[in-house]
Design brief:
The complex is a heterodimer of chains A (294) and B (601). Chain A is mainly alpha-helical. Chain A is built from 11 helices and 4 strands, in the order ααααβββααααβααα. Chain A has helices at residues 2-32, 39-55, 60-83, 93-114, 141-163, 165-175, 177-182, 187-213, 221-235, 240-260, 263-280, and strands at 119-120, 131-134, 137-140, 215-216. In chain A, β2 (131-134) and β3 (137-140) form a beta hairpin. With 601 residues, chain B is of the alpha/beta class. Chain B has 2 domains: 3-314, ABC transporter involved in vitamin B12 uptake, BtuC (Orthogonal Bundle); 348-600, P-loop containing nucleotide triphosphate hydrolases (Rossmann fold). In chain B, 56% of the residues lie in helices and 10% in strands. Chain B contains 26 helices and 12 strands. Chain B has helices spanning 3-11, 14-27, 33-58, 66-84, 88-106, 115-135, 137-140, 166-188, 191-201, 203-208, 213-239, 249-263, 267-283, 285-289, 291-305, 309-314, 386-393, 416-421, 439-446, 455-459, 463-482, 498-511, 528-543, 555-561, 579-584, 586-593; strands at residues 158-159, 162-163, 348-357, 360-370, 375-379, 401-406, 409-410, 424-426, 516-520, 547-551, 564-569, 572-577. In chain B, a hairpin with a 2-residue loop joins β3 (348-357) and β4 (360-370). Chain B is elongated. The model of chain B has no long low-confidence stretch (mean pLDDT 91). Classes of the chains: A mainly alpha (294), B alpha/beta (601). Chains A and B meet through α4, α9 and α11 of A and α6, α12 and α15 of B. Chain B: It comes from Billgrantia endophytica.
């Protein structure tokens, strides 16, 4: 029973991080109908930098801030280098390939700079041994903190998007960029900001998830990206609430299967879930159906 | 002539290829085994590049997990031979079938979602297969790898008592590759190849020609998987030892890079891309050290710097018709269309159709009947619902209420490609051709629904397939003559003036031998003489008993053609009758010009 509860708690914790990453994906999807296939490497870069900088004695907060700034910058650069010039290539072929390429490039750079071995991630939230008893099971404080921070950020982003001027801008651009532009909304700026925020969210998620896993290596982001994408699809592409619900459910499901069976089986189940949702209900739980315009 | 294009011409010359292959086959007996193995490896890569090209380059479905197919195929082939003693050619065939089935299953969602979902799914597929082969130790040996696979490399591969040496293994692979490429070439030039490319470029236009989105994508995935399966089978026996590390994301990326750099869409380009990325890493150590960085940069910049790859530089393009292989027998244009029976009641019967979009009623209780051999004109201001009605009849929209009957059968809610297969063909308000196809290829695409020969017949150019393709090529020529398009026959449609594109689209619609023809503003932007050709095409259809619905704003153009005209305003019918009466009708005049102010009356 304790084991079961522990799996539930750790599942909720990583699930919340999936929702965070999915929100980052949704953000650029809203404004440009594009999402970054190299997002996994952004998670990795932020976590790697944080670990290395703290390891070399830099102030913890400063290290995190620098890493997040880099993550935001990477997404802006992605938009300028790997997305905008490629939108004229027919369909999504161009940007899918180029954003994946940028991610692989970053992975290569990270391997070159920091080596391919896993780096231990320092304790930035509580100590890894701190834990509390919840419903009779001992739960690491780090899990609880990661869960709280992730859910808080997702909630704040939702409020921000719903009630701030900037949020109106995002939704206007999502609805119709040409019309938004005619209404005096600085579309270009909104798009760039959405990418920057997507990067920041990925950076936070990378740091949070490394805090749980304890280590980070250059290849670590890809699985997270895929699981977050599955959460985004199951929840309904473009729906923040959907991504949160689906992310939490997916995290719990994953940890339970991994705990009782094997991690590979957990990923297999997640993959089958993705195929099934795309085949049966591509708009997901809370997404809107896409309408073909002729 | 551009020297690069000259090189392109030489290397795609069948004689050159033949001589090169013969030399390689003979030379295999004289060089060391390592070199022969390298050549075998090259062939595996060429096959993989062809596999991903068919899916990504031609059908437009991005695969980021092709190593997944390679892994599944390799282990299946290895187990079949090692544990069950299946003779190796049979094992390779079984592997092909298994891989094709995996591809088919992966593509199940493909009819309903946009490409990038499938791209992410393929990425996940590659990753999960890699994980599974690592974990499934009982079957694959896990990270320790699988040893003891019969291999020509170790002189352990036998068939019916004959021990296959590396040089003979290479020769077998070479012949297999040549057969495969020959079949691929014929396949791509058939109506299947055109359908693959059409769903890549415009799913909506493809649907209007009877090409099923989901079906075509699943077929592309299955074929691509099958070809990867052949490559995997050859690979497994060639190396004799399998380890999960050969099937990482990097391997998928490598296959994709070969295909993109070689030139997506070009069969010859794949050979060049595979050759480049088989030998370059051997020659340049930096390639291995900075693999991620190099491949990453190639992916980021290749579409901008080298959009059509090496094949584009060398000017070798794969064409999508067998025009160059077959000569067309041009029939009389009257033989292009079947003569339809005009006696049997309404061809299409629209009853009480309502079409609602969020907050907007685009069609409000519309009813319409069209008889065979008649032309019905639809007029009305922009946004009055004319195009929406055509979209409803052609299956692009599912009406909120009401029925559409075609020859008595209710078809509302049917997918567009099924509607098209009944013989309902449409054109679009903005012409939707495949821009890189020639005029001839575009019009030939119209005949898609009429083709009877299957994929295998198309791949081997069976007599029946050639006869059929020749027959349709002839009909296309007859239509091009009638539409005065023959001088543009072999030019890419995308580079031609608007009027020509329109005429080509209408000719394409006629090539489908329709029973009901839906034309959405076909005369817009046409010159005087082009309008005349268009009029002739429409009359040709009518005279063969085709029912025509014609939207247009040119009253003079309509006057000459229509039997009946229906005017719409705000989603409702406001007039029905002849042109004369419509001009005098108050409601129509008001809808077009607005109400006259009473004070001036």
């Amino acid at each position: 029973m304790d084991f079961f509860l522990q799996m539930i708690f750790s599942g909720l914790s990583v699930g919340a991080v999936y929702a965070l990453i999915a929100l980052g994906l949704n953000l650029t999807f809203w404004t440009t109908r594009v999402l970054n296939f190299g997002q996994g490497s952004v998670l990795m870069i932020a976590a790697m930098l944080t670990a290395v900088m703290i390891g070399s004695g830099l102030n913890m907060l400063l290290a995190i801030l620098i890493s997040l700034a880099v993550a935001g910058a990477v997404l802006i650069i992605s938009e300028i280098v790997a997305i905008r010039p490629l939108l004229k290539v027919s369909g999504s072929m161009g940007w899918v390939v180029s954003t994946l390429g940028l991610g692989i490039f970053l992975q290569g750079v990270a391997s070159l700079a920091f080596g391919t071995q896993a780096v231990a991630f320092p304790d930035v939230l509580f100590s890894s041994s701190a834990s509390v008893q919840l419903f009779g099971a001992w739960v690491s404080m780090q899990y609880i903190a990661v869960f709280m921070i992730s859910v808080l950020i997702v909630g704040l982003m939702e409020l921000f998007l719903r009630y701030s001027t900037w949020g109106y801008g995002v939704r206007a651009v999502a609805h119709d960029p040409d019309l938004a532009s005619l209404m005096g909304i600085p579309v270009r700026k909104v798009v760039l900001y959405s990418f920057m925020f997507s990067g920041l969210l990925a950076g936070v998620a990378g740091i949070l998830v490394s805090q749980i896993s304890g280590t980070v290596d250059p290849g670590f982001g890809l699985h997270l990206l895929i699981l977050a994408f599955i959460a985004a699809v199951v929840g309904g592409m473009g729906s923040a609430t959907g991504a949160l619900i689906a992310g939490l459910a997916l995290g719990v499901l994953e940890k339970l299967i991994a705990g009782y069976y094997s991690p590979a089986a957990a990923h297999m189940v997640a993959f089958v879930l993705l195929v099934a949702v795309l085949a049966i209900r591509p708009q997901g739980l809370l997404g809107k159906k896409e309408m073909v315009k002729v | 002539m551009n020297p690069l294009h000259l090189i392109g011409r030489v290397i795609s010359n069948p004689w050159f290829v033949g001589v090169l292959c013969t030399v390689a086959a003979v030379a295999a007996g004289f060089v060391n085994q390592g070199t022969v193995q390298m050549w075998c490896f090259l062939i595996v890569n060429i096959m993989l590049a062809q596999s991903i090209n068919l899916l990504t380059g031609i059908a437009g479905q991005i695969s980021l997990g092709h190593a997944g197919f390679l892994a599944i195929g390799s282990y299946v082939a290895a187990v079949l031979l090692k544990d069950y003693g299946v003779p190796f050619p049979v094992a390779i065939l079984i592997t092909m079938v298994v891989s094709a089935m995996v591809g088919y299953v992966l593509a199940i969602p493909s009819g309903r979602v946009r490409e990038f979902y499938l791209a992410m799914m393929s990425l996940a597929f590659g990753l999960i297969v890699y994980e599974l082969v690592r974990e499934w130790r009982d079957l694959t040996g896990g990270v320790m790898g699988m040893r003891g696979i019969p291999s020509p490399n170790l002189n352990t591969l036998e068939i019916f008592g004959w021990q296959v040496s590396m040089e003979w293994y290479f020769r077998i692979m070479l012949i297999s590759l040549l057969v495969l490429m020959m079949m691929l070439r014929n396949f791509v030039k058939s109506h299947f190849g055109r359908a693959f490319y059409a769903i890549h470029v415009s799913e909506v236009a493809a649907g209007s020609l009877g090409i099923s989105q989901g079906g075509t994508k699943r077929f592309a995935y299955a074929l691509s998987g099958g070809i990867a399966g052949i490559a995997a089978g050859f690979y497994a026996y060639m190396v004799g030892y399998l380890t999960p590390e050969s099937f990482t994301l990097m391997r998928s990326v490598e296959i994709l890079v070969m295909s993109i750099v070689g030139g997506l869409g070009s069969l010859m380009g794949q050979v060049l891309g595979a050759a480049l990325f088989t030998y370059l890493p051997q020659q340049l150590q930096a390639f291995n050290d900075y693999q991620f960085i190099v491949y990453g940069l190639i992916l980021v910049f290749s579409f901008i710097l080298l959009p059509r790859g090496i094949a584009g530089l060398l000017g070798t393009h794969t064409r999508y018709s067998k025009h160059d292989q077959l000569t067309a027998n041009i029939p009389d244009v009257n033989a292009v269309l079947s003569r339809r029976d005009t006696g049997s009641g309404a061809l299409v019967d629209v009853q009480g159709v309502v079409m609602e979009f969020t907050g907007l009623r685009a069609l409000d209780d519309v009813s319409l009947k069209v008889l065979p051999g008649t032309i019905t004109g639809l007029v009305g201001p922009n946004g009055s619902g004319k195009s929406t009605l055509i979209n409803v009849i052609s299956g692009i929209y599912k009406p909120t209420a009401g029925t559409v009957r075609f020859k008595g059968q209710a078809i509302n809610g049917w997918p567009a490609h099924k509607v098209a297969c009944l013989g309902i063909t449409r054109t679009f308000q903005d012409p939707r051709n495949v821009p890189s196809f020639t005029v001839r290829e575009n019009i030939l695409m119209g005949a898609h629904r009429l083709y009877k020969h299957g994929a295998f017949a198309a791949s081997i150019n069976s007599p029946a397939a050639s006869r059929e393709e020749g027959q349709f090529l002839g009909r296309v020529d007859a239509l091009m003559k009638e539409a005065d398009l023959i001088r543009h026959a072999d030019e890419a449609v995308g580079n031609l003036p608007y009027g020509i594109q329109r005429l080509a689209e209408v000719a394409r619609a006629l090539a489908s031998d329709p029973e009901l023809l839906l034309l959405d503003e076909p005369a817009a932007g046409l010159s005087e003489s082009e309008s005349e050709r268009l009029g002739a095409l429409i009359r040709l259809a009518r005279d063969h008993g085709v029912g025509v619905i014609l939207i247009d704003h040119h009253m003079d153009f309509l006057e000459e053609l229509v039997d009946e005209v229906v005017a719409f305003d705000a989603g409702r019918e406001i007039y029905r009758g002849d042109m004369e009466g419509m001009r005098a009708d108050r409601a129509v005049v008001e809808a077009y010009l607005g109400k006259e102010e009473e004070s001036h009356a």
